[in-house]
Automatic annotation (TrEMBL):
Record protein name field: Phospholipid-transporting ATPase
Organism in which the protein naturally occurs: Paramecium sonneborni
Enzyme class name: translocase
Similarity field: Belongs to the cation transport ATPase (P-type) (TC 3.A.3) family. Type IV subfamily.
Binding site for ATP: D380, K381, T382, E462, F507, K530, R561, T641, G642, D643, R723, K729, N752, D753
Active site: D380
Length: 1021
């Protein structure tokens, strides 16, 4: 087969009457001609690096971080003799560790990617050639080759289906790895090639014309032209129903498909974007404090330079300034990033392994602390707050309403029996209503391996409808792309209705309706349609519109999802004339969708109203309790749904989004500025009420009143956006982040929630019946809404609290040793040398203090049950009170105080102070870190105590085993440790006492709350 890649013109060809008179840039495949060897292969390459690019690219990415670049600069200065102030290992060692850890992580991840790619590329498939079937690796498949795919095999490239082993040309696929949807999808082969055998497929003459590759997985347009021996040309339009995208899986049977896109042009690869890296608010705050430390370091080096000696030549001053800057560079600890990365990994592992929220997965280990800082939670409704398990509850005809009460069902049975027994009666709406339920859908009955009947559908609503129809005696026996067979059982009446499918118009989120044209046993042509009330009422006679509005609102008030059903009878002549124009529209390549839609709208004229259905979607377990906890924790919960306002109101009341003491402020169909201004004024004056707004009003509010609307909405205890499109969900998320400046989380379960999830600071996906698309796009995935209780109030709160304390300990560690170095330079005539040897400096931030600091990530101030019983504990730290400029200055003061006491007391109290100075001061620094760790923690457990004892043992063994290298052979004795203990008490005890006094005299709000929790716990016990 020959593949033409350039743009072509269809003008002047046999297709000219069927297309618009313009140049159309497209592609074509000429069947059964030689394939160009220059055509790109189908190899999948998801790796980031090759063996040649690994080191340069990893180093490039690492040194894009300011502080890595900063420490690289410090390291380079130590190779300049005039700036060398100590051992090079002090600077090369820590930086090398950071880079090596990063390289190992990148190498490990990329090796896994290479391995997965090789496994996929080496998978064998059979291609159909004139010599028969031949094996070929997936990575070598080319455009134009015909591939055989069997049951449960992965689709290796984007295929146009030529033939299936199903006599009707049907093929069922699973696309959960492509779009996250778990339900089977129906695809169809091309009619012109379905009945060809293998030899005919390899000998066929013709051309396939199709569009250039693009990212939209829901659209495909093309045209197949087959040349017959007598010179005639057969044409068939191709659409999305004839295509299987790469990485789908064939659920049943066998197919032959021709490769149309491969490799980087396949839909899977074109949609495989690099996920946007989210930087958590905690990391932003740590960066801010690190920059503050950097500023302090610059000022401190300048002050030392100013006091060191009278001004000399400029070069000397710069040289001395750089030396002092390097000596106090420990203010910014290089170990900060490594320690925090390790902590984040631990938090993620603990979330993944928590048995109380089974199925929860941390997909982004960079932002666990953000879970403890959420101020706004935006939630979808269906499948998120509700179960997405639809149960048929009631329906209404023109003047009759029916529920599932036994009396109503008996009445329905009797009416149906009468209408089937006397079909000549004029009024047969009940019969037509249930016929519409039975035939107007995309459900496919499938028998499993045990012979049990199951239904495959993309919407659980449709399954609920056909199950209810079956309960009333309308059973779907068979459905394919040609006909639907319904068995009707009404008492002694057993009827088999066979409907020929003439046309089918699937549901889409844009049209909000679906329709089907059928011919029944009596050769009558019926057009059935069902859809959203806002759409269908515009297509029905005006006399029904008020009734539809009233009845759908009544159903929505009790939390039911509604659909409106209608139908039309066509004469054969009417249908033939319409269908002729419709076929022409389907064979267009350009503007095909708009032309088809115009033809469908012609068919939708003169519809007759049949009825309204009400389907219930129950709330998930513990939703109201979870929302109550989140609200008590200071989290403002908004609901963004595409459902009706009345249904949204009902769910808001049942779920607890609206308190009994609150009222709703409705913004419905607000389309002009004056009306919007009045509503916003009312909202500002009544900000304690719940705002509910529909999609039309929301669009108007965002067009001209964006800031005013968002600020007014943020003052409400809760906001509900109904009839909300996926795009509007994402826009609201972005605007809430912009105007609040706080952490915004989003939770949803469907593909329409992906934009909202990705736009939020913390995206939470629920693996539900709509598939895994939302979960795969999220930062954290859960199985149920109630899992947010533990995820936020326990794991989120602890992650933020632990990382805050950990980062401040590390900052304190750097400030403390920098303070000691500064005092040393001031006391000893501004010597620009390091007080400590290279080995001690290296060990100070690693092996000597590593274990106690790591114990912080296991610290707990309350038990899990108390954290859930007292949600205000979350609120007390929600605004970042544990890590900010104030806490930084407090720890700075602690470091300066302790550094001053340690340095001065070491000189004054210890004999031969100068000779013992390094060992004395360093030992005091180490033991001060141990003491601070134990006293700052909220709880002590055996591992923390053992970690401190292990660190003490390691340090003492180092002094004893390497006395000459550390210059301590004559300094270690019993009085020495006595003085060290005294200095430790002098530097640590005053801070401990002050902390206890401050807690008693002027406790913070958090400490007051903790005392209350402890008292209530004691009283309860």
């Amino acid at each position: 087969m020959k593949i033409e890649e350039e743009g072509i013109s269809l003008k002047g060809t046999v297709l000219d009457p069927l297309i618009e008179k313009q140049e159309i840039k497209q592609r074509e495949i000429i069947l059964n001609q030689m394939i160009s060897k220059r055509k790109a292969c189908n190899e999948i390459n998801n790796s980031k690096y090759s063996i040649f690019t690994f080191f340069p690219l990893v180093l490039f990415y690492q040194f894009q971080h300011f502080f890595n670049l900063y420490f690289l600069g410090l390291t380079i200065t130590q190779f300049i003799p005039a700036l060398k102030v100590g051992f090079i290992i002090n600077y090369v060692g820590p930086l090398s560790i950071v880079l090596c850890l990063s390289m190992c992580k990148e190498a490990y991840d990329d090796i896994l990617r290479h391995s997965r790619d090789r496994q996929i590329n080496k998978q064998l498939y059979q291609i159909l050639t004139i010599e028969g079937l031949m094996n070929k690796k997936s990575g070598n498949l080319q455009v134009g080759q015909i591939v055989q795919v069997n049951k449960d095999e992965r689709i290796p490239a984007d295929l146009l289906i030529l033939k299936t082993d199903d006599k009707d040309g049907n093929a069922f696929i699973r696309t959960d790895q492509l779009d996250g949807e778990t339900d089977w999808k129906l695809r169809k082969s091309l009619k012109l090639t379905q009945n060809m055998d293998e030899n005919q497929l390899t000998q066929a003459s013709g051309v396939i014309q199709f569009e250039q590759p693009h990212q939209n997985i829901n659209v495909f347009k093309g045209l197949l032209q087959i040349n017959e021996i007598d010179g005639n040309q057969l044409r068939e339009s191709t659409s999305i129903e004839n295509i299987i995208w790469a990485n789908s899986v064939l659920a049943v049977g066998q197919i032959y498909g021709i490769v149309i896109y491969n490799g980087q042009e396949s839909k899977m690869m074109m949609n495989q974007k690099k996920s946007q890296t989210k930087k958590g608010i905690f990391d932003i705050e740590v960066d801010r404090l690190s920059k503050l430390s950097f500023f302090i370091m610059i000022i401190l080096a300048a002050i030392i330079t100013l006091f060191s000696s009278p001004p000399r030549d400029f070069t000397y001053v710069i040289q001395m300034y750089m030396r002092y800057l390097i000596l106090v560079s420990n203010i910014i600890p290089i170990s900060m990033r490594v320690n925090l990365e390790f902590a984040k990994i631990v938090y993620s592992i603990r979330i993944n392994r928590d048995p109380n929220i089974d199925g929860t997965i941390s997909r982004n280990s960079n932002i666990p602390e953000s879970l403890g800082r959420i101020s706004y939670l935006l939630s979808d409704k269906t499948g998120t707050l509700t179960q997405n398990d639809m149960v048929f509850k009631r329906f209404s005809l023109e003047n009759e309403k029916y529920t599932l009460e036994q009396d109503d069902l008996q009445k329905v049975k009797q009416i149906l029996y009468d209408q089937f027994k006397n079909p000549s009666k004029k009024n047969g709406k009940m019969r037509e209503f249930f016929t519409c339920l039975s035939v107007c859908h995309s459900v496919t009955p499938v028998d499993d391996e045990y012979g049990n009947r199951t239904y495959q559908a993309q919407s659980p609503d449709e399954i609920a409808l056909i199950k209810f129809a079956a309960q009333q005696g309308f059973y779907i026996s068979q459905r394919n792309d040609k006909e639907i067979i319904i068995h009707i059982d009404q008492n002694e009446l057993k009827i088999k209705e066979r409907y020929q499918i003439l046309n089918c118009f699937p549901f889409s989120s844009e049209n909000k309706r679906m329709g089907i044209v059928l011919k029944n046993n009596q050769n009558q042509i019926h057009f059935y349609v069902k859809g959203a009330d806002v759409v269908l009422k515009q297509l029905l006679p005006e006399q029904y519109q008020n009734y539809i509005d009233e009845e759908t609102e009544n159903l929505a008030r009790v939390g039911l999802r509604t659909l409106v059903l209608a139908h039309r009878i066509l004469t054969q002549k009417e249908y033939d004339e319409w269908n002729k124009q419709y076929i022409k529209a389907t064979q267009l390549i350009d503007n095909r969708e708009s032309k088809i839609q115009n033809m469908i709208e012609q068919l939708e004229r003169q519809l007759e109203f049949l009825g309204i259905t009400g389907v219930e979607d129950k709330l998930q377990d513990d939703v109201s309790h979870t929302i109550e906890n989140l609200k008590n924790a200071g989290i403002n919960v908004w609901m963004l749904t595409g459902d009706k306002m009345e249904t949204a109101i009902c769910v808001a009341i049942l779920s607890g989004l609206k308190h009994q003491s609150q009222n709703f402020i409705k913004m419905k169909d607000v389309i002009d500025e004056i009306q919007m201004s009045l509503v916003l004024q009312n909202l500002e004056a009544n900000s304690n009420n719940v705002l509910i707004i529909d999609g039309i009003s929301l669009q108007e509010a965002l067009n001209g009143f964006e800031e005013k609307f968002m600020k007014a909405a943020m003052n409400c205890p809760s906001v509900i956006c109904c009839r909300c499109s996926p795009t509007q969900k994402a826009i609201i998320t972005e605007l809430l982040k912009k105007y609040s400046g706080l952490v915004v989380a989003a939770v949803g379960d469907g593909g329409n929630d992906v934009g909202m999830i990705q736009s939020s600071d913390v995206g939470i996906g629920i693996e539900g019946k709509e598939g895994k698309q939302a979960a795969l796009a999220s930062d954290f995935s859960i199985l149920r809404f109630s899992s947010l209780n533990l995820l936020l109030l326990w794991h989120g709160r602890l992650s933020y609290k632990r990382s805050s304390l950990l980062s401040q300990f590390i900052i304190h560690r750097g400030l403390l040793i920098a303070t000691v170095q500064t005092i040393f330079m001031f006391l000893f005539y501004f010597l620009s040398i390091s007080l400590f040897s290279g080995f001690l400096m290296f060990g100070y931030s690693t092996i000597f203090t590593m274990f106690p600091v790591f114990c912080i990530i296991y610290d707990e101030d309350v038990k899990q049950d108390l954290a859930l019983r007292f949600p205000p504990l979350y609120k007390s730290i929600q605004q970042g009170r544990l890590l900010n400029t104030k806490t930084f200055l407090i720890w700075l003061w602690k470091a300066v105080f302790q550094g001053f006491i340690i340095m001065i007391c070491s000189i004054l109290l210890i004999k031969q102070a100068f000779l013992r100075l390094e060992t004395t001061v360093f030992t005091c620094l180490i033991f001060t870190q141990y003491a601070m760790t134990l006293t700052e923690l909220e709880s002590l457990h055996i591992f923390m105590i053992l970690a401190n004892l292990l660190s003490v043992l390691i340090y003492l063994m180092t002094l004893l085993l390497f006395p000459q290298q550390l210059l301590v052979q004559d300094t270690i004795d019993v009085p020495f440790f006595g003085w060290v203990f005294l200095i430790l008490l002098m530097s640590w005890l005053p801070l401990y006492v002050l902390r206890r006094i401050q807690k008693l005299v002027d406790p913070s709000d958090h400490e007051k709350l903790m005392d209350q929790v402890q008292r209530e716990t004691i009283n309860t016990n």
